[in-house]
Design a protein that fits this description.
Strand content: 5-15%
Number of strands: 8
Number of helices: 28
Oligomer: single chain
CATH architecture of one domain: Alpha Horseshoe
Largest sheet: 6 strands, antiparallel
Structural class: mainly alpha
CATH topology of one domain: Leucine-rich Repeat Variant
Radius of gyration: 27 Å
């Protein structure tokens, strides 16, 4: 983790050739809200590695309105088509990161977003409206732009404009005439949002559509994914009027192909927050132990805070579920409940302190452990004497985000502890740059290792291998050529003097390497692994190992393919 005075080194990391270093550099720039990094972060928005561009967008959002020079580039990203569906409203990847950054810039981004509302592309206007809604700024200029959007040729734009006006309340009173005109619109969603907006902006309005809920429930089964999602979103905003839709929404959670879980979760949370009987129905569904939907239901309960306290025993039970996603959701829900959930602390601490052999090395996306570190700080006040040692141990975790969360939880539980002295000074390029992948055939360890080292997909490596038959016994030269082609760096075999050493005595100084090992007493059983310092990635296993825990640690080293430094044995 970088110290605040080390900005020069951080700026250098943002220009590194290693995408992992650029990604973590962007993370640190955002964490420190470093204004000097803004030009470099803007450049990273165009990075060919999407994960780097996403992190750059996040970092600019953390800097906030001081990063207003990035607004033109963020707007240009907002105009990009989605990868899966160019006209899809739902924001994904770099586009979602840019929208989040614009949201955090608040009023500074509003003029540019209002200008985008004139864009000829429907999906671009929709994204601009959605981002304006997230910012939540209420002004005459914004209301006027939304009134104009109510006349848009796109039904999605009209309904989204109605939704945003509904959220403004009486401040959008000027839109009443235009909203009344939409009560006869041909589109169901437009009529529903116009009605809802009128009820909020003009309390005397009493007209409702008695068949709207039944029509929206029918839309939950529509063949168009966007219509299904918008139907769920609209049902959520109808609140108590949509109680009859709860069974259909619960059913949708069990079939994620039918309806995106996010929209169903949000709708159920809105309805349940207003109706105690719906909360009881959700808890009953959680008690059924349906692993397909229990994680989603836990997220619904997480949006209700203490009102979900009755579900605590079932949430604790979910901490032992086989699904990592279900455990993540349960941890999040327990954390929102607060100190009332302190009975779950031992279970959550156990998830946080799993051994290295149970955790993939590059686990920056391991939301389960990250949630655990955050949640313990929220609910562990009554048990701080028992949880602090575990949190202090977590400060040595290989995951940057988990370490940071643990430090925050320690400060929350005991402000007297100086976490700065306890934290190790971790190099940016010391974070493991290997994504673990498992081999798919008996002898294609070479393909898997190349994919691990370069971050490429398994399929993309297979696509450039001259012949699949050679994958089983790829020579060292073939491995080196693949690595050079995918990473842009030279790779060479080094340190022939260590061939007689067992793997357990080998350490890497700085960069990842491909290591060829063989079993004791057999010259034919050679096997490729990826190695980074004392972390071993064997494609025959499901996860990475600390070298001391690796089952084949006593196999002999036949050779090492490295792009930089030599081994120390």
């Amino acid at each position: 983790m970088l110290l605040q005075g080390d900005s020069a080194r951080l700026l250098e990391a943002l220009k590194s050739e290693n995408p992992w270093v650029r990604e973590y550099g962007a993370f640190e720039a955002g964490r420190l809200r470093l204004e000097d990094a803004i030009p470099s972060l803007v450049d990273l928005l165009k990075d060919d590695q999407e994960r780097v561009a996403i992190m750059a967008g996040w970092a600019l959002g953390q800097v906030g309105s001081r990063a207003q020079t990035a607004i033109p580039e963020l707007i240009s990203i907002l105009k990009r088509p989605n990868r899966t569906d160019p006209n899809l409203l739902f924001l994904q990847g770099t586009v979602a990161s840019a929208a989040d950054a614009l949201q955090r810039m608040e009023a500074m981004a509003v003029p540019a977003l209002l200008e985008v509302l004139r864009d000829p592309a429907e999906h671009v206007r929709l994204r601009a409206l959605t981002t304006l809604g997230r910012i939540g700024l209420v002004s005459g200029e914004v209301v006027h732009a939304l009134i104009h959007a109510l006349e848009d040729e796109s039904t999605w734009v009209r309904s989204e404009a109605g939704r945003l006006l509904a959220g403004m309340g009486t401040a959008a009173h000027a839109a009443v005439p235009a909203l009344r005109g939409l009560l006869s619109d041909a589109n169901l969603f437009v009529r529903c949002w116009a009605d809802f907006a009128l009820r909020v902006t003009q309390p005397s309005h009493s007209q409702k559509f008695p068949h709207a809920v039944s029509c929206l429930i029918t839309c939950l089964s529509d063949k168009d994914r966007a219509i299904r999602a918008r139907a769920a979103q609209t049902l959520g905003y109808l609140g108590l009027e949509a109680v009859s839709a709860v069974p259909a929404l619960l059913s949708a959670l069990k079939d994620p192909e039918n309806l995106p879980p996010r929209e169903a979760i949000q709708a159920l949370a809105r309805i349940a927050s207003q109706d105690k009987s719906v909360r009881s129905e959700l808890i009953a569904a959680l008690a059924e132990q349906d692993s397909d939907s229990s994680g989603h239901i836990a997220l619904v309960l997480a949006r209700m805070g203490l009102r979900a306290k009755a579900a605590l025993p079932y949430l604790i039970r979910l901490l032992k579920d086989d699904s990592s996603y279900v455990r993540q959701c349960a941890i999040e829900a327990i954390g929102v409940i607060g100190q009332e959930g302190d009975g779950a602390v031992p279970h959550i601490l156990g998830l946080l302190l799993r051994t290295k052999t149970q955790v993939r090395c590059r686990d920056c996306l391991d939301q389960e452990r990250l949630n655990a570190a955050i949640t313990i700080g929220r609910i562990g006040v009554l048990r701080k004497t028992s949880v602090l040692p575990g949190l202090i141990q977590t400060l040595h975790d290989p995951n940057l985000l988990v370490r940071s969360a643990a430090a925050c939880s320690i400060r929350r539980l005991d402000p007297g502890i100086d976490t700065g002295c306890l934290l190790e000074q971790v190099e940016l390029d010391g974070m493991c740059p290997i994504i673990h992948r498992k081999q798919r055939l008996e002898k294609d360890c070479g393909v898997a290792v190349v994919a691990m080292i370069t971050g490429a997909t398994y399929e993309s490596v297979l696509a450039i291998v001259p012949a699949v038959g050679k994958c089983a016994e790829m020579a060292c030269r073939e491995i080196a050529k693949l690595l050079k082609r995918l990473s842009g760096r030279e790779w060479r075999w080094q340190a022939p003097w260590c061939f007689s050493y067992p793997l357990v005595k080998v350490r890497l100084r700085r960069y990842p390497a491909v290591v060829l090992i063989r079993g004791p007493g057999s010259l034919s059983s050679c096997h490729y692994i990826a190695m980074y310092r004392d972390i071993v990635h064997d494609p025959e296993f499901d996860c990475a190992f600390a070298l001391g825990d690796y089952p084949n640690r006593n196999w002999l080293v036949r050779g090492v393919l490295d792009s930089s430094e030599e081994l120390i044995a």
